[in-house]
Amino acid sequence: xxxxxxxxxxxxxxxxxxxxxxxxxxxxxxxxxxxxxxxxxxxxxxxxxxxxxxxxxxxxxxxxxxxxxxxxxxxxxxxxxxxxxxxxxxxxxxxxxxxxxxxxxxxxxxxxxxxxxxxxxxxxxxxxxxxxxxxxxxxxxxxxxxxxxxxxxxxxxxxxxxxxxxxxxxxxxxxxxxxxxxxxxxxxxxxxxxxxxxxxxxxxxxxxxxxxxxxxxxxxxxxxxxxxxxxxxxxxxxxxxxxxxxxxxxxxxxxxxxxxxxxxxxxxxxxxxxxxxxxxxxxxxxxxxxxxxxxxxxxxxxxxxxxxxxxxxxxxxxxxxxxxxxxxxxxxxxxxxxxxxxxxxxxxxxxxxxxxxxxx
Length: 360
Hints:
By secondary structure, the protein is an alpha/beta fold. It has 13 helices and 5 strands. It has 3 domains: 14-76; 90-136; 154-191 and 206-345, Ribonuclease H-like superfamily/Ribonuclease H (Nucleotidyltransferase, domain 5). It has helices spanning 14-23, 29-42, 47-54, 58-71, 90-98, 115-122, 126-136, 154-166, 237-250, 269-277, 296-308, 316-332, 343-359; strands spanning 172-188, 207-220, 226-232, 255-260, 281-285. It has a 5-stranded mixed beta sheet. α6 (115-122) crosses α7.
């Protein structure tokens, strides 16, 4: 048979090394595949079978067999390329990437670096730029948002809220409440095309607006369940007081600690009057521009991804009914969100960011 060759003879101890290369996380994919081809050859597999298992061409299979037979495992490494080797000034590349706060020069007319543009700029390969960026953990394509809090009571409020998460009072209930405003009932202008093998779900880029609603939600920090939720056309202090009534009714006869953001509606005189009439309820406010401290925001992110993102609603009642079904099912299997970062850690991280911003 044309493809028949004798099983490849391995050197002493090489089988274990080759098997480690196939499994090893520190081995490149190309080296792992070459090691697998050699092992298959040592097991007596025909070249044509090794082609099927590795995706190599038959000449490539023969090359790696011969390279191993001649040089051993060292022969599986890439041979030196002809010509003068390319010298990469890695530090110059990194400095160029990070210069001007990572923003490319104005004359280039681009807003962010790509590996291909940087490769052309430095006369090296795209793969070299990508490899160096990975090594230095630089990701020009990513961007994160931030906002420094100007709240004069930042530390006091942060310690108060984080303390409730990490060490809640005994025989008391801690809830995180907020409003998810302007939830739109959107319907696509044409029927959605269903998903099929090799074909993702498709919908039109345009849609019809069928009104908006506001979801008020109260998350029980201990259980992770929503102890109260309701929908309102507006989100003024009137609706907030009405929702506080619902939260209090859902947690009767216990000391109740309510975490909310610094929104003016939450501090309205009507709210203060309600709190005076309900002394078992204590409000705790997150610092200005620190709504991420409000745990119910995590739930809002989940319901957006799992219920709202790809749905179609022809009316507000249809939208609200869908959200109610989601909340009912969510509560059946809800688990608490575990807060792990202490106040000192968070304050230190915020201060470091402010220091870096000031230095710039």
